[in-house]
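User: quick one
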Amino acid sequence: MESKSRVFLLLFFTFCTSFALLVGASLASAWESAECQGCHGEAAMVGNDLVVNAEVFATTPHAEMGCPSCHMVSNSHPDGEPVKKLGCPMCHSKAAEEYSGGIHAEIAACIDCHDPHSALGAASVSGYAMNQMCTNCHAPDTTAKSHAEWLPWLPQTEVHLGTVPCVTCHTNSKEMAITWYISNYKVPDGEFTPVSYEELAERANNGEVPQIIDTNNNGRISINELSTFNTADEYRKLHLAGMMIPEEFSHDFAMPENRWDCTFCHASGPDALQTSFVAFPEADGTLQRLPVEEGAVLDALYATPNFYVIGATRNPILNWIGGIILVGGLLMPLGHGTLRLLTMKNRRH
Amino acid sequence: MAQKKYIYLQPTPVRTWHWINAFGFVVLILSGIQIRFPEYVNIFGSYKAAIELHNTAGIVISINFCLWLIYYLFISRTLVKTYVPTTDDIRYGLVRQSIFYFFNYFLGKPNPHHPTPDDKFNPLQKSAYLAIMLIMMPLLILSGIVLLNIGSLSGLVLALGGLKIVVAAHFLLACCLCAFMFTHIYLATLGETPIAHFKPMWYGWEEVHEDKEH
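Assistant: Done. Structure below.
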């Protein structure tokens, strides 16, 4: 109880400090983001190291806060004085605390993975893009090899690496959900590249990409809508590639013990893999996620035809059919055997 | 009085093949159950162990199947004769054998089919083995090979309708073969004695009575 109070007080103190610094920083400077971008939007004016792509920055959650929230400059800027910056932990204290205890903290700063001028919210980053961040340091070939050493500790290595973002296993992230991305038909070695907004917009009615699947435009995707998409001739070259992505991210890169156990993913349960989304690309490079009706992952045929997690996505109807086949196989020995016992005297000769 | 006579019914390659197959199938069934129902069944310690055992047994069974096919096709050259029912079998044999199993057997009447090295299987056995060995087993093996290589065969998986279709086919075919195994083992107990048909599959020699040969 006492330790909970301490944690609460610490968080409260951190929040107050961050708030005061942010407000203070904003008030101390009269600069507006638009003014900053007047110079920092062009490499010719500030150089490649200080340029910020205004269009990309505008799609990030940081844009709402504005440049002065993190960069404290005097009214006479540029005056040669160094610009003070607020560190990421000021706002992202929980992530910073988790990250600081791990091996990555010694070799990579926050901005080595998350450029604050282009970092999107977690829901707007595809699992594919998450893995791209990791490949900046962890070369795909080496990663594949290390996961597939004899005997492969990770069977179907290339499939796992293509469908499970690194952070799903290598962080203490929680609340796994399936996110589907519209992908092209050709899938080399389990990897895929989501189809671009432009390509999908050409196919969609009125350019509304989500309506490719969400035909009734109610913001939710039903199993029927998924089946319609998967069986439609016009979308024959497209398919849904699913990835298992945490809903609650952690920056604690100490791999939890339970990730070594295959049944962390490969076991069914009442809530297993029931939460799923389809992520549609937006014109600004972000993603729009629409929730999918429960049960889509378990559907036997057309809702998610190419998504199967052995042990976890078994279909109950198929189990019943299999059971009936087995019982059928047992009926003959049982029925015949019973009659055989009853007529045993007829064969005593 | 009937005299005992022995005929060499099951050559060594066939017996070796049969017992490798039998052992492999038991391993596949048990590991398959654990793979499909991991939260209820844990026979082999860990899920990964079940997967690796299933994959290994699957490869052994597949190679075994190929050896069987090569043996019957190119070495003994008796595949068609042994496993494909003749016109006579279809017109009369199936009915005659069914009447025996489901009626005459209970009245103590003799089996209308007497196995010989050239004619090992009765018409019902031929039909069942034809479906099992030349249709279901190849499909089961092929679907297993696809599932072992879903990364490199992803194009084929999609062309077949997706991973779920392949998995469903593999699962249902496995259930069919498992159901066949129950019947197969039971029917093997219907000899003169309950183990009469097991002996030739172990020793090679089948005991027959002289008077029944005529």
